[in-house]
Specification:
alpha/beta, Rossmann fold, 2 domains, 7-stranded parallel beta sheet, 6-stranded parallel beta sheet, 14 helices, globular
């Protein structure tokens, strides 16, 4: 039997990359002889993330369209034929049985090239409101995997499967071993702004802890992921104010970080929310207000309605009100415990397994691979 070959396209942010890595890890665990190639744009977060997990990557030229000015849109459109041609070359070289798109503009030319090559195609939509690329690809691909039920309305229903959003195995394993009954009376707050940081959120948190409510927040231990641009500034502010905090631009071992945390203050990216649900961390969510189609607020709604999170719009928050909400949740262990239970109820720990099942099924139906 030939080894199963999966080509995964997407990346550019941790929200796209980490679910893809989780699916690839599941495939490798199930079929050790399988081969996986990631095809993206070669951004630093992709190359570092793939290298740390032992996966091969390749890159093509591709540019985003939505949100660009006229010149940027023209550049993106002009690059499409070349992008498809480059993707065709990589596909012919790797000979995948299935191509899985995990989001981002690069998936457009890659999955188009796969379709033209007669290869089964699957996309995974992480957000409640799909981006432009996935909306267009929904008409072309074999199957569509959804993280949240709200996104089904944008796709042909007969192609859709609600899978959830894959979470890396190290985080799933840590969550399974964690004692959900343990509620700390001296809690640790984890601040996450996504893989690229969140400047406005960083400022609000630093203002609250260093100035506005320094005394009220003193009993809360702080772990703060800032993104590269704000790391040194935030570190300096905490040091000068005497605030004990663990600060990093980016944490590579998120399982270890989640293990220490009791609740979280975060943007509302789909992958972060899936991880918080798996771990069972109650969350205060501040969606990124400029996300395409306001999808982060829609993502957050799902977890708020499920009882695992509070949500506040960024323009409604001040350092004082953020401190007030943080102190309220930190000082109420019973509420944090209830929210943690609700978060776990929203988790879908089998997401990676289900997506791999769908990819294998698609390959069999296209007669490109058999067990």
């Amino acid at each position: 039997m030939a080894a199963f070959r999966l080509l995964i396209s997407g990346g550019g942010t941790g929200g796209h990359l980490f679910p893809a890595i989780a699916a690839a890890q599941e495939l490798r665990a199930r079929l050790p002889d399988s081969e996986v190639l990631f095809l993206g744009t070669g951004r630093k977060i992709d190359t570092l993330g793939l290298a740390s997990h032992g996966f091969a990557g390749a890159a093509i030229e591709s540019f985003g369209f939505k949100g660009e000015d006229f010149a940027g849109k023209c550049k993106a459109i002009a690059a499409v034929p070349k992008s498809i041609a480059q993707a065709m070359i990589e596909i012919r070289r790797f000979r995948p049985d299935v191509v899985l798109g995990v989001g981002g503009y690069v998936t457009g030319p890659v999955l188009t090239a796969a379709r033209l090559s007669g290869i089964a195609t699957v996309i995974h939509e992480q957000n409640s409101v799909p981006g432009l690329t996935n909306r267009l690809l929904g008409r072309l691909v074999t199957r569509i995997c959804l993280s949240l039920p709200e996104s089904e309305q944008y796709f042909p229903a007969k192609k859709c499967v609600l899978t959830g959003n894959p979470v890396r195995q190290t985080i799933v394993s840590m969550a399974q071993a964690k004692d959900e009954e343990t509620v700390s009376s001296h809690p640790t707050l984890l601040v996450l702004g996504g893989s690229q940081g969140a400047h406005a959120l960083n400022q609000l948190v630093a203002d609250a802890f260093c100035q506005t409510a320094k005394t009220e927040l003193a009993a809360i231990r702080l772990i703060h992921q800032t993104g590269a641009d704000d790391e040194e500034v935030v570190k300096k502010r905490y040091a000068e104010a005497g605030v004990e905090a663990e600060v990093a631009a980016f944490f590579t071992d998120m399982a270890a970080v989640y293990r220490q945390a009791d609740f979280c203050l975060s943007r509302a990216g789909a992958t972060t929310l899936a991880e918080l649900a798996i771990v069972g961390l109650p969350a205060i969510l501040v969606p990124y207000p400029y996300a395409a189609d306001n999808h982060q607020e829609r993502n957050a709604d799902h977890y708020v309605e499920g009882g695992g999170a509070w949500m506040f719009r960024q323009n409604e928050l001040t350092a004082a009100s953020l401190a007030q909400h943080t102190v309220a949740l930190a000082g109420d262990p019973a509420r944090r415990w209830a929210m943690a239970r609700s978060m776990r109820g929203l988790a879908q720990p089998e997401a990676a397994k289900t997506i791999v099942d769908i990819c294998l099924e698609a390959a069999k139906k296209s007669a490109r691979w058999s067990e």
